[in-house]
What we know:
Number of helices: 18
CATH architecture: Up-down Bundle
Number of domains: 1
Distance between the termini: 37 Å
Oligomer: single chain
Number of strands: 0
CATH class: Mainly Alpha
Helix content: over 70%
Structural class: mainly alpha
CATH superfamily: Amino acid/polyamine transporter I
Shape: globular
Amino acid sequence: MHRACLPQARCARAHPRKRGRLALVFRWVQRVAEQNRGLVRTIGRWSLAALMLNTMIGGSIFGLPSVIAARLGRVSPAAYFVALAGIAVIAACLAEVASYFQEAGGPYLYAREAFGSLMGIQIGWLTWLSRITASAAVANLFIAYLSEFLPRVREPAVRGLVITVLISFLAIMNYRGVSTGNRLSNFFTITKVVLLTAFVSGGLLALALHPAIRVNPAELHPTATEWFEAVILLVYAYGGFEAALFISGEARNPRKDAPIALFTALVTVTLLYVGVQYVVIHTLANSTVTEKPAVDSARQFLGPVGVTLVAIGTLVSTYGYISANMLHAPRVTFAMAERGDFPKFFAAVHPRFRTPHLSIVAFAAMLVLFSVVGNFRWNAVLSAVSRLFIYGSVAAALPALRRKYPRGGTFRLPAARVFVVLSLLFTGVLTTQMHRGDLIAVAVTFTVALVTWVCTRGRVLEPAASE
């Protein structure tokens, strides 16, 4: 007799009461075995917060200060608080929406449950696009900073080779297990927070002790369009908090941990972002035109060793951002495929490493393509625009989920209607500033999503028709 049949055979010969107990144990073992074939829950509350920080901080803060300063000048630090106000109301909606779910998928899953498979697929595709373009933007920023040490990396062939090698390494690490990817993400998070804290503290101290290095930034008179452009770019800088929830299927208690992790990440990031922007515009005369504002700023108040450390730290930080996305972004296509909204092989779980290995490989391949073809600004803007639709869907999902599951969430947002309206206004106003190229990219993504929905719907209807 096959070993798998032994517990059932023993049940048949046992006393009726013992037989019932053995049957219960056998069914429990079967359930555990089925669970063990899937993903593994290993990510705790603070690792979830660290993953949010790693995804939010990334490399944007090392490239955006000059872009924001060029539009707003002296008042550029205030733009971070404007963006925070909009992001905070969205994050508040997300905190409740996320408390309804424990599975992988993030905004895709929320939209699907609230509005049906068509909307879920649309948001799923946009989510995947936003993570690819955001990571590709930072990969290009990584090359810009690496050129400080290796100027040849700007050559197209060398640039493409370096990007491919770096992304392939992260793909392999995450392919081999979520715990490995999680530890790598935690390391990068600690490194970048320490680096930015040291940079801000050193800059503020230098400005206080050596007034001669202080630069008075230009007093510009930004138009409404320039404010909108700055805030859209800062949506890119703040974005990422929602991405950490893609991996809820591997978090220990995502329904309770998500609200605390969101609050911790937003407060920490805001303090660091405002500090970096202030130091850059007050220590760097050409802060509006430089491609490497953090390094060029450090050069004004730190010695050569300090500048080298900042440059190396920046490389670690940007690479950490890509690492975080390699950890959580493949879970979007995994979740979609698991529910029949994407090709089924994307839902495959490696029998040994328990990771969505084919989704990881697909994400890595797309990331290499976008990184090599695009540049920092193109990828950053496209990522920010995609996120506006994603954030709008999260806010709209909140009242829909409350109606469907009145007691479903573990976190209840006070004055939820006010937060939903403000979130939709914030994202709606910003979408009016989209350029033609952004609209085309989003339209193409929606078209692909619609085709995907038609195909998956056809597969669902065929068995029904045959019956």
